Inverse folding.
């Protein structure tokens, strides 16, 4: 890592996040001091379609981004005097990404400060550092969101080893699809989390899929098992189905994450991504860490789901290691964690 004079103590980064259906802006100092964080969710616009509609999302970002950035700047008490502008360049929806990337480059040019392209997955990893800046490495990070399920060994800042991932549905996708089938609405994760508190997690023994590769996951068979069970037993209590499904997902996630942490001598386990807001997953990771002498790093639920504070934090580290991102770098809908623009 080549320290850049551009990201020293007191460096103030404006982060912008528009990769999916949240329009967000935040001002963060020194990669961990969140001065403002504004998130405008488009969830109501997409709810009646049961999922994110890309065209609607990008149009909404165009309308919402300027007021969201203005609010983040006002709340932070800064008037254009930021030291860098960081924006998510991928992965995500191309139209949505382009709105944030274009705005960030424009602001950086107007203010004469560096632009930093941020990988959305790396940003999720940095959510833990917002609240635990001195978190000791290496750690194993379970990154579970609507689009991704990754088990990552974070060895140093900017250095990641991908240990495994899903071979079919992402964990959040499974929550969303099962919730939709059960008529619990969108987004499905928070709905299942809520309903499951009224149900018995041991009511139905749903399968725990164990793919061949040690740290891979598979959730599509579980989703089918839920559908088949409900069709066969229409009288079943929805809360029991939700609780039993959630328990099956959490069981597999926690078992594999613990094994990875132990195998790689990690100091602890970090959760990241929207599914990391799940109350049962958080409870099980906490208990597991206490039992096995590991540190649990659980970002607060608002930092698990998409936000721009994590983008600003990751941007600070990228500025320090790589310097500014050239302005001809575009949006990359299929960016992977180990590749950075
Ligand atoms: O990280 P995120 O906000 O956006 C993506 O980058 O995908 O994650 C959104 C996902 C959705 O699938 C949503 O259902 C899930 O995170 N989610 C949850 C909870 N809150 C959000 N899943 C389970 N339990 C929750 N409490
Ligand atoms: Zn995300």
């Amino acid at each position: 890592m080549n320290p850049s004079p551009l990201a020293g103590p007191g460096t103030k980064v404006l982060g912008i996040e528009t990769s999916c259906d949240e329009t967000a802006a935040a001002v963060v100092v020194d990669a961990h001091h969140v001065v403002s964080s504004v998130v405008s969710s488009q969830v109501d616009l997409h709810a009646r379609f049961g999922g994110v509609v890309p065209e609607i999302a990008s149009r909404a970002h165009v309308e919402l981004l300027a007021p969201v950035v203005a609010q983040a700047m006002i709340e932070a008490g800064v008037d254009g005097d930021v030291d860098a502008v960081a924006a998510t360049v991928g992965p995500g929806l191309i139209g949505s990404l382009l709105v944030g990337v274009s705005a960030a480059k424009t602001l950086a040019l107007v203010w004469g400060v560096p632009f930093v392209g941020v990988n959305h997955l790396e940003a999720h990893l940095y959510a833990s550092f917002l609240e635990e800046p001195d978190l000791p490495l290496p750690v194993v990070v379970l990154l579970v969101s609507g689009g991704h399920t990754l088990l990552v060994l974070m060895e140093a800042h900017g250095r990641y080893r991908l240990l495994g991932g899903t071979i079919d549905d992402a964990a959040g996708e499974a929550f969303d699809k099962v919730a939709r089938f059960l008529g619990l609405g969108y987004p499905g994760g928070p709905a299942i989390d809520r309903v499951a508190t009224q149900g018995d997690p041991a009511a139905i023994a749903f399968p725990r899929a164990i793919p061949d590769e040690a740290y891979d996951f598979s959730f599509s068979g579980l989703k089918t098992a839920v559908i088949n069970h409900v069709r066969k037993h229409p009288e079943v209590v929805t809360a029991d189905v939700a609780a039993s499904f959630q328990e099956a997902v959490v069981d597999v996630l926690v078992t594999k994450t613990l094994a990875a942490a132990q195998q790689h001598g990690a100091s602890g386990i970090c959760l990241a991504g929207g599914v990391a807001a799940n109350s049962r997953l958080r409870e099980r990771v906490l208990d597991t860490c206490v039992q096995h002498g590991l540190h649990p790093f659980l970002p607060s639920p608002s930092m698990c789901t998409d936000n721009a504070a994590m983008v600003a934090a990751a941007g600070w580290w990228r500025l320090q290691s790589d310097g500014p991102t050239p302005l001809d770098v575009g949006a990359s809908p299929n960016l992977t964690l180990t590749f950075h623009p």
